């Protein structure tokens, strides 16, 4: 992609050929004039940094760029009022669209957890983080839900292992 060819050298501030989490964070905008959530940046880089070098090279960056662009399109689809934020109802519509069936109380928990600005809404970067964390938790849960009935029984240590594999 031509745009990525243009973009990579501008994001790679130290000209190392590797885009670090700090460089990516500075390049990204969540639409709120606040820095992109560092946890989201690390999470995204971790998905694409295949050699654990602490950043992504040009080829990996093309994947990062597509990933973020895809999330931007999803975000815009569910940001029904075009506010640049996802409110509780929009989050519910998005996650229901992804196949989740969750209680209203759980959506309140998600908003409290991922609303870093205290406005009862979730910014773009935190929306990505919310969805990624939820997907990872779901994947781990499914590994233990061998009969696929939506219930698992785990020991305390198994539970801790599950949680720490996510965070």
TrEMBL record:
Domain EF-hand: from-to ranges: 66-101, 102-137
InterPro entries for the chain: EF-hand-dom_pair, EF_Hand_1_Ca_BS, EF_hand_dom, Peflin/Sorcin_CaBP
GO MF, any single term: calcium-dependent protein binding
Alphabetical UniProt keywords: Acetylation, Angiogenesis, Apoptosis, Calcium, Cytoplasm, Cytoplasmic vesicle, Endoplasmic reticulum, Endosome, Magnesium, Membrane, Metal-binding, Nucleus, Repeat
Signal peptide stretch: none
GO biological process: angiogenesis; apoptotic process; response to calcium ion
Protein name, per record: Programmed cell death protein 6
Species per Swiss-Prot/TrEMBL record: Sylvia borin
């Amino acid at each position: 992609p031509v745009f990525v060819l243009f973009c990579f050298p501008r994001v790679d501030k130290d000209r190392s050929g590797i885009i670090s989490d700090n460089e990516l964070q500075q390049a990204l905008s969540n639409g709120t004039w606040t820095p992109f959530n560092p946890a989201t940046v690390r999470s995204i880089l971790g998905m694409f940094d295949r050699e654990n070098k602490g950043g992504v090279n040009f080829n990996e960056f093309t994947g990062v760029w597509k990933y973020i662009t895809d999330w931007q399109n999803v975000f815009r689809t569910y940001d029904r009022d075009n506010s640049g934020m996802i409110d509780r109802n929009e989050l519910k519509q998005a996650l229901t669209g992804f196949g989740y069936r969750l209680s209203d109380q759980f959506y309140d928990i998600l908003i409290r957890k991922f609303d870093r600005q205290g406005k009862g809404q979730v910014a773009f970067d935190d929306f990505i983080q919310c969805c990624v964390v939820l997907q990872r938790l779901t994947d781990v849960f499914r590994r233990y839900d061998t009969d696929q009935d939506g219930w698992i029984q785990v020991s305390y240590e198994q539970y801790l292992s599950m949680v720490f594999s996510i965070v």
